[in-house]
TrEMBL record:
Transmembrane segments: none
Pfam family of the protein (one): Methyltransf_11
Name of the molecule in the record: Demethylmenaquinone methyltransferase
Entries under CDD domains matching the protein: AdoMet_MTases (cd02440)
Methyltransferase type domain sequence ranges: 45-141
Length: 263
């Protein structure tokens, strides 16, 4: 796999401080409200980042089970380990490529992939590998964005005007893979049966819009463009999202696909 998505420790910490509470934490909670896990089972969270969903799985899983978080980035795993919760389960962390997971066949009862599939270079190989490590009655819970969020759409427009096309494309990159029929086909081709497919809507909250923008990969583009350009971009995004303002906090909806796929 290429190193396109390997992050520095600083970037991993920034992701944890900004993206997790604003987006990935709420998404983890919304996902876990929609699924049921058998007590005392083995669960793996793939592309776990700094462990937002992993921790929510550990919180919800009853009995004494095994919960594993895996991410390509060692820096993400380091941050996840530093925030490891006290729980009754065996909790493990691994830095590994999704196409070469360090587990025997039929190891896990459940697998989760939260907003990771769109970034896997070889999606078919990744899903086949997940299928391999699941038991015969196992399930995969998969989320991918369903539509470009109002925030990213507004950000892309402002970047297009003031910074350039490359930065605008980067702002919408997480939403470039959102075709539900294509995702379904990939799952079926990898050996899964689609048990459920439904929309999932979370509310993304922005207390500090500038900090959220500067926590994204387009931070470098904005810093290169200068403070005046950055201020214009932040102001235009704030204006575009003003209808979501509730007492100084932006409550912006963001839609995802939730797939439940059985082995």
């Amino acid at each position: 796999m290429t190193d396109n998505f390997r992050l520095t420790k600083e970037a991993a910490q920034k992701y944890n401080n900004h993206s997790v509470p604003a987006m990935f934490g709420p998404l983890a909670e919304a996902t876990m409200q929609k699924v049921q896990l058998r007590s005392g089972t083995c669960v793996i969270d793939i592309a776990c980042g700094t462990g937002a969903l992993t921790r929510e799985i550990a919180r919800k899983l009853t009995g004494k089970g095994r919960v594993v978080g895996v991410d390509l980035n060692e820096t993400m795993i380091e941050v996840a380990q530093s925030n490891q919760p006290d729980c009754r389960h065996v909790l493990e962390w691994y830095a590994a490529d999704v196409t070469e997971l360090p587990f025997e066949d039929a190891t896990f009862d459940y697998a989760f992939i939260q907003q990771g599939l769109q970034f896997f270079p070889d999606k078919s190989a990744a899903l086949q590998e997940v299928h391999r490590i699941l038991r015969n009655d196992g399930q995969l819970f998969l989320t991918c964005w369903r539509a470009v969020s109002p925030f990213n759409g507004a950000l892309a427009k402002a970047l297009e005007r003031h910074v350039g096309t490359d930065a605008a494309v980067k702002a919408k990159a997480p939403f470039s893979f959102r075709d539900g029929e294509l995702i379904s086909k990939l799952l079926v081709d990898a050996g899964f049966k689609i048990a459920r497919h439904e929309p999932l809507v979370l509310e993304r909250r922005f207390i500090d819009l500038r900090a959220q923008i500067m926590a994204l990969p387009i931070e470098t583009d904005l810093r290169d463009a200068g403070a005046d350009v950055t201020n214009k971009v932040v102001e235009e995004v704030a204006d575009a999202l003003s209808r979501y303002d509730k007492k100084g906090v932006l409550h912006v909806p963001q839609e995802a696909h939730l797939f439940v796929a059985a082995v």
